[in-house]
Amino acid sequence: MFGRGRGAMAAWAQRFWDDLKNSTDASLLSILRFLGLLYGPIDTELPIDRAFRKSLRHRLSRYAGWRQAFGGITYLLFIVLVVTGVLLSFYYRPSAEEAYQSVQHIVSGVTMGWLMRDAHVWAANLIVIAALVHMARVFFGAAYKPPRETNWLVGLLLLFVIFAFGSTGYLLPWDQWAYWTVTEGLGVLHHVPLVGGGMVEILRGDPIISGATLSRFFALHVIVLPWIAMGLLVLHFTLVRKHGVAPPARPGAEDVGPGDQAGVPFFPDHFLRSLIVGVLVLSLVITLAALYPRDVAAAANPAQPPRSLRSTWIVADVSRGLIYHLGGWGFLGFLLLGGLMVLLPLFDRSPERRLRKRPIVGALGVIFFLGFAAAWAAGWQLRSRPISASGELAPFEQPLAKPGLALPHMTPVTPAPAPVDTSHTGGVR
Amino acid sequence: MRVVAGAVALAVLSARAPAQQVVPVQGIAGMDTTNGCLVCHAAQRQAAAEGVHSQHGVECVSCHGGNAAARTLPDAHQGGFTGTLNKVQTAELCGSCHSDPNRMREYGLPTGELAQFRTSRHGQLLFGSHNTDAPTCTDCHGTHIIYPPYDARSRVYPTNIPSTCAHCHADEKLMARYQLRTDQFDHFRGSAHGVALFQQQNFAAPTCISCHGAHSALPPTGSEVANVCGRCHALVDQAFSSGPHGVAAETGKLRGCLACHSNHSTEGVPIENIGPTCDKCHAADTRLHQIGVDLQHSVAQASEDMQSAKRAVDQLAVAGQQVGYYQFRYQEAQTYYLQIAQAQHGLDLNKVDDLARRVRSVSISLNDAANASQENRWEHKLILLPVWFLSLSAVVLAWLALRSLRRMRDEQREG
To answer: Which residues in chain A touch residue B268, judged by CB atoms under 8 angstroms apart?
Structure first.
């Protein structure tokens, strides 16, 4: 009786599955393919399950292998950010009144909330490193050369989107670090000629960073940027398939284009490689989140800048390092160098791929990538310096009221000695 | 950026400044063109338009006499013209209105100033011996342009009072004639009162006149001191009066608060100096001296507990805990701690110990909460064990599968 019931269940499930297969168009798989989760072409003549298997068994280019790992890692971190971000959005409240408390609640009240939050923070930083390493690989391997120059530009746009994601997300915890790091960041943006001031006005929505700014940054972070990123990613993946994997920069490696199928099948060979890399990256994210959680600083206070400011966002560290050591012009120069990266495929069109034969481009790359790393290290060193070091907020460091209003006929008043710190005793000495 | 800084600074300043009455300044338009005095005395034009007197219709002739409608000098200086008044006359002239309750009623001003001034050392010198070193009304309030005390331009605005007094009292040559010290202002500026007044713009803080009196300025006598301080430090005064030192102060054996604290610099006795301060009167190894040593021990313990409680609250905040409740407990401890400051003035060792124990109890419970949260945070790391076990297993399995796949493909190629 029990066995017969089970048999009926199995038969029903089989029928349901067959029904689903026969009624579903195989071209639905193109969505997975668009999202970069499936590599091979979809044979839409076949039923969906066979089309799926056929696509899985698709053989890759002979050049596909471990070299391409960092692009995949970047995408994996993006997925981690999407998943943890969606989980965080269940608890986060984007208003100046509730944001800080909701982050406190996430960290100390929600089960595994700390993991969601710290994994999100760490993945946000790691994705910058992964994207830059991916970019460096493409750069030094000359994979940006025709016909792949469009994808190089799309990749740079994606890098910019990553920076925008982090910069908008940084305000959301609404604590002192967030508030004043973004204040500093908008101050930097303000210095951009012509458009800087207007952009700051639009982004901030108020004379100072306030609830209006928080709403804008939240909307950008969870609505606008994800759709832009998704569109660019789909384009990025499609273009990879269109032009195939670039050959390595060694003599004799020809560009075999998209048709090449001399490599291993996507499944299981390449899938297993991806699994190894992916599992290690996920473990790394969780490890960093568990060992180095981001502290919750005091709640944002527009009237009281902190004595020292620590950012936990690479881009903030990099800009601080650049501005502090090289000044505004150095920062602008580095931005221009980044701009040169956009134009790179326009002036570097020779088919030469070996780095030794491309000394100018090679030097440019070394300056950009090593410069980024150096500025990051410098900004990291500076992170605990008082913010008056940036020069922008110096007026706050001075006492608000001058002691004593001396009238002309009166004894000149000299500044009073510093009061004894009695904060922990409520003024009792 | 600079705009932000300015906006924030403005917001902060306006939040801090006390509500002040806005006094409209009358310009040329409001000037009385029929006032003939100003034809010659052009330097006083501003005085005729500005200041509280001109606004309430007090004109040149109201104080100086004469005829403002006259067009020639002899005519103008007719009819009770007084010219420049000396200091005694000045005080009496001001008093002619300001001591008259019927005239002051509409402005809600007190009328006792001149009577008070006569009792002050200043008034005694001026009226008694016609000593013009002593100030008269105009020396502190201004001569022709007189602003009300709530106007920041006034010399008797709270933050300006100390420098107004110091104008004479910091003058060494002048004060040498009366064997008075000149360091009061410097001491006051560094004191808790001075810091509150100048740096925090706290107008509840006392200025010179709060203890000495304004018009009736005199130093409080030894037996008055405790009462003067006690007007603000009421609870400390209560404890002090009920203790043995209070009795001693009443009988004149002890200089009240000044026995341990100084007057103008008002420094508190640091915790590590409580015992040594007792040395001034009580020889070491006496029973009474031991009370001071015990007191110091209890207060020091409570102070350490307060600091540790604060560290615990900070630690909880950094770990993302909602610290409202813990801050409430910390406030509670702070209340006990402040009560210790009161109780120690009554030398009530039992009460101080009891309060110190309460501080300690709060501090311990806050530290327990902080430790629990740290432990909880540490336990997060345990998740790494299953994560790395699973991930390394997956990696090893995938690696083995990959290797066998490669071997299979090699065999296929050879075969």
So the answer is: 428-429
For B112-135, what is the mean pLDDT? 90
Q: Of B198, B269, B308, which to mutate for an interface test with A (greatest number of A Cβ within 10 Å)?
A: B198
In the predicted structure, residue B21 carries a pLDDT above the cut 70: no
As a whole number of angstroms, the distance between CA B369 and CA B373 comes to 6
Closest by CA to B117, choosing from B98, B143, B103, is B98
Cα separation values, B297 from B31, B294, B304, B344, Å: 69, 5, 11, 12
Q: Do B15 and A303 touch (CB under 8 A)?
A: yes
Rounded to the nearest 10°, the torsion over CA B317, B320, B323, B325 is -150
Looking at the domain assignment, is residue B178 inside a domain? yes
> Quick one: B196 and B242 in the same domain?
no
Q: What is the pLDDT of residue B15?
A: 43
Measure in Å the smallest separation between the Cα of A114 and chain B Cα atoms. Answer: 9
**Is residue A122 in some structural domain?**
yes
Q: What is the largest CA-CA distance in chain A?
A: 110
Q: Is the per-residue pLDDT at A331 higher than 50?
A: yes
Q: CB A416 to CB B380 under 8 A?
A: no
Q: What distances in angstroms separate CA B214 from CA B7, B91, B269, one per listed residue?
A: 39, 15, 29
- Residue A184 falls inside a structural domain: yes
Q: Is the Cβ of A30 closer than 8 Å to some Cβ of chain B?
A: no
Number of domains chain B contains:
4
Does the predicted TM-score (pTM) go above 0.80? no
Residues spanned by the domain of B190: 149-218
Residue B1 within any structural domain of the chain = no
- For residue A401, give how far its alpha carbon lies from the nearest alpha carbon of chain B (Å): 6
Is residue A67 within 8 A of residue A61, CB to CB? The reply is no
Q: How many domains does chain A have?
A: 1
Q: What is the mean pLDDT of residues B292-301?
A: 94
E strands in A184-319: none
In a domain, B32, yes or no: no
Q: Is residue A14 part of a domain?
A: no
**A-B interface: how many C-beta pairs under 8 angstroms?**
172
Tell if the CB–CB gap between B8 and A275 is shorter than 8 Å: no
Residue B107 is assigned to a structural domain of this protein: no
pLDDT of residue B17: 42
**Residues on chain B touching A280 (C-beta within 8 angstroms):** 391, 395
Q: Which residues in chain B have their CB less than 8 angstroms from residue A406's CB?
A: 163
Q: Are residues B358 and B305 in the same domain?
A: yes
Are residues B207 and B226 both part of a single domain?
no
- The beta-carbon neighbor of A272 closest among B16, B162, B402 is B402
pLDDT at A393: 34
Tell me which chain B residues have a C-beta less than 8 angstroms from the C-beta of A297.
318
Give the mutation candidate from A188, A192, A273, A279 for the B interface (greatest B CB count, under 10 A).
Answer: A279
Q: What is the CATH number of the domain that holds A293?
A: 1.20.810.10
* Segment A78-101, tens digit of pLDDT: 999 999 999 999 999 999 999 999
The range of the structural domain enclosing residue A99 comes to 66-248+260-392
Highest mean pLDDT among A125-129, A376-380, B14-18: A125-129
What percent of the residues of chain B are helix, what percent strand, and what percent coil, each to the nearest 5?
Answer: 65, 0, 35
B157 with B211, same domain: the answer is: yes
Q: Nearest Cα to A169, choosing from A128, A214, A133, A130?
A: A214
Residue A291 has pLDDT above 90, yes or no: yes
A111, closest residue in chain B (CA to CA): B380
Interface test with A, best of B4, B167, B235, B383 (most A CBs within 10 A): B4
Query: What was the ipTM of the complex prediction?
Result: 0.82
Mean per-residue pLDDT, A367-393: 71
**A313 assigned to some structural domain:** yes
Tell me the percentage of chain A whose pLDDT exceeds 90.
45
